[in-house]
Amino acid sequence: MAPKPSFELNSLSTIIPSVFDQVQTSAATHKKNCVTLYKLQSASAKVTETVDRGRNNAELRLIGEKTFAEIFMDMLNRVLVVKKGVTAGDKIVKFVASYVKFLGEKASESDEEETPSSRFISRLLKFFLKGFNAKNKDVRSRCLQFVSEIVVNLGELDQDLYSELKAALVERLSDKEHLARAYSVISLSKLAASEDPYDLEDDEPPIVTSLLTSLYVDPAAEVRRAALIHIPFTPSTLPALLTRMRDTDALTRKLVFSSVLPRLPHPRQLTISQREQIAAQGLGDRADSVRVAAARLLGFWVDACEGDLTAFIQLFDVQTPHIACDALKSVFVTRAEVVNEIAFDDDFWSALRPETALLARTFVEYCIEKKDESRLESALPVVTALAFRLQTSYNTYLEAVQAEDSGIEDNDDREEKAFAIEFTLGELLRLAVHLDYSDEIGRRKMFGVIRNMLAHPELPESLIEPGIGVLSVMSPNERDLVRVVVEIINELRDPGFEEEVTVGNETIDGDTTTGTARPSSITVRSRVRREETEMTAEEKEQADLIDLRCLCMCIAVLERAHSSFEDNSTLEGILADLIIPSVKRKELLLRERGLVSLGLCCLIAKNMAVGSFQLFLGQIQSAPESLRLKALQVVFDILLTYDKGLYGPTETVDERVVAFLLQTLNVEESKSVQALICLGLAKLMLFGLVTDERVLTSLVLAYVSPASSDNQELRQCLAYFLPVYCYSSAANQMRMQSIFITAFNMVVQLIDDLEDEQDMISALQFGQQLIDWTDATKVVGASSSDPSPVHVNLAIDILRALYDNNKPADERKALCQLLAKLTLPSKVEQELLYTLYILVANLIELCPFDDPVTDKAFVRFKVKVEKHFASLLLEYDEQACFHDEAYSEVFEFIGVTRPKKRRFEGSAHVPNSRAPESDAESDANVETDTEEPASNTRKHKNTGTTSRKRVNKETAPPPPSDEEERDETPVPSRPKGTKKISEDDRVSASEVEDPSESESETSQEEEKENTPIPQTPPKKERFKRLHTPTKTPSMRSPAPKRQNRGKALVKNGKASKQELEPLNNATNGKAKDEKRGNSKTTSTTTRKPTKGKKPPSYRSPAPEPSEADITADDIEMVSESSDDEEDDSAPSDSSIPTARQRQRASRLS
């Protein structure tokens, strides 16, 4: 018999729900309710039941624990279905996690291996594991959220339960819901911290591997952020975490700098390359929030260095000073208190090191950028003092080089010391550019020091460019600068001149001034140099080194030259003796610098550019990659400099040059060369120097081609160029519109030719991108009152492409979907609008769609056009447009030789439009184009169109005779439709839309009874094949046959519910009546040409050819068909009944 329970279990069903009701309203009650629940659980755990199994075998049942757990999980079931974002549900999740943590703390106080708390936690985990595979996404997400919150507070778990939980969480990493994947990542990250790699099986990957996969490839930014924050921060995972600095999501990139990297106690735990990568990518990010986070991180690094900016600079490699420079400028902004402590006194300048020299130069540039004159004045040294500092430092450098030659010191120490002095000299020279040289004494001293340094053969090449920069600042004009540099070059190349600085006692005399130059000796010294054949191998090597140094000086001074070549006559000797011979050399470095120098000369001498341009083009094909890059830079610089053309007065670049560059781009394999060609062509197009559509097409295809997927430099260049090019002017958008179909077809071909491992965007995505680039509303400075009709022209191009029945259904579907993305302007020219509507109105009849989705997409665009341009289409008349020469090419393209008498009749937009008649009136009356007598004929005042007459068939006038009908010819009307329609101009009733016709379904007898009044027969029974437009299906009849789509009659692009009885072609009945004496019922539908019958002739506004002009190929043979054969072709003007047939139809009715 069970003992009397001391605790009422029935009270749990009341107390536990009240606890959950409290915790979902406020988090402040969580701790109190955890204690309450624990007391309930402890009391329930004491309620047990003993079951006697016989033979002294008794079983103890924990009925109290089971009851508590069931009620607790029943409460959780009510939370699992709550969607994300509900505050009450999130608070309950936090409370359950808090309660599990509370249970863990209580269990740690007990020595027992299995406690009621551990059994409850295991039961809770098994409960959530069942929900991992739930069909409801909210249930899966909530279960994973519960586990992600409580897994961190779990103590020891059973091995089987741990394995089951781990496998289930790894499986959820591939869940289709990104929220479920994110919670799985959080849970696994906490399990990974306690995973023992020795417990893994041979083929079982560690948890960290799965988490890194999610970090790399998961498409959802929330999942990548969860992995970034929760993956264990170890030296092995740090490189993977740093890759998220290049993530596509700005918030993910920000978290790297704000949440991940601050965990490091000191930046020296990173390598130099990692620190430079963090500074460069963080401060150079395109998002402001990321740059701010990176600047704060660098501020933390300064604090880690105890505010010592010199120690902070040592975190970076001074060989790449631009990164350290950007980091310092960031610190100047975020740590202003540190900057105030810098003192540029004599002690600072006397103990210069690479770090302090970089600090001084960067601080001066920062003050100049911020226009802080007071700080700048205190930081800049005196010119004379800096000149002496430069002279002393360079002499120290020469001593270090001399010690290296003599081998007195250790090799590594010598190199490090020489590099430190070289770097310090470079920073001082860059600082000297910003000094004030109004003091003539200081200027002369600085000029002498810099000139002697440049004339010394041991000067490192890295100091030549900043040295020339200081000379350019001190020189009174450009001509004097060129003269001084040319003199230095000739002194270097003349091996017989007496140097003021000797090798045995290498010191610099700083007394040389501008007045010591001897221009008369320049030409003589250049001639003293011996011929190459007279030199030994050692002398040749030394001469080549001197030439490289001289070419470096030439490049530096020519980059600063802006006047013409004729104004700097001293350059002629350097060009003849140094530059041109270097271009002819086989040594790559000499040849490369010679080409660059010659190209810079061409920029200031047009005649030289014309004569040397072919030389640079020739280097692009055959030279090594480094030389090709330099040659391409020279070519594009020349093209950009001489925008009026090199081969004549044209304002654009020569087509031969463009074709050559495009051919090089297509066959080039080097990524750097491809990127440089695209960059150069993009610049030429932005400046309007290249307008060739082939160039734009090639650049667009290079942007999306799978072949350039790994060329990020190329894609980044084009990603900036293409939108800027299109949004800069409407003319550029029109040019982009003109290549749309060509580029679209090429992209489709690229997609078809894709290999298995390649991937690229779809044709629809490509078209949407081009439509966005051609949006006239996004043009800079676009006028809202007069928008560009670029999308109207684009719609015409797309519609012309849709007239090609040979296109695959997928392509036509994509093109129709793109039509819906177009932005139509409020105003457009009449000719352009009518061209658009002619193509829209005839497309479904001439080139129907096989896919219903495509058909609906086009119909929606047709309705959009009619609604948007309703007021402008009121005077549209297709027959009048047909006789207008402006639209002849359009009708010829679509293959229409006799258009319908189609007019735009929008009842919702046309004033005084009558309401549709009832079904009875529609059956009794037929609308015709015959005009009323003069007394009854009227014109609408608002629309200017002639009203039509409803004629009862019983009182209809008799049809004219055959002779009268043969003399009738259609009278052309004007496109505006304002001319009154003559009585000789008739149209069949099948071409007149009746609103009730598409809504009513009549029987076959009603169809025969409502047969339209016949029309004028053709002149002759002969048929001439129509002209077939390029890239359109062959059309052997005036209107291409509709595909077999049931018996639905198509009118104006909409399927009618009315089904017509199959009728024979009335035009073929005349010949048969004469032979067999029978008559046929007239029909409004066009008969399909069948074998054995000659098709009817067609009346055209153009003169008909004589029978002698018609060849056998122009005659189409057709076969006979049975009288009851169904006709599924579209209505057309080709069915023109004869007078006899009309009389027969009248008697039948």
TrEMBL record:
- Regions of compositional bias (Acidic residues) in chain numbering: 918-932, 991-1008, 1106-1130
Q: Give the Basic residues compositional bias ranges.
A: 937-951
Q: Name one GO cellular component term.
A: condensed chromosome
Coiled-coil intervals? none
- Keywords in alphabetical order: Cell cycle, Cell division, Chromosome, DNA condensation, Mitosis
Q: Name one GO biological process term.
A: cell division
Per the similarity annotation, which family is this?
Belongs to the CND3 (condensin subunit 3) family.
Q: What is this protein called?
A: Condensin subunit Cnd3
Q: Tell me which species this is from.
A: Pyrrhoderma noxium
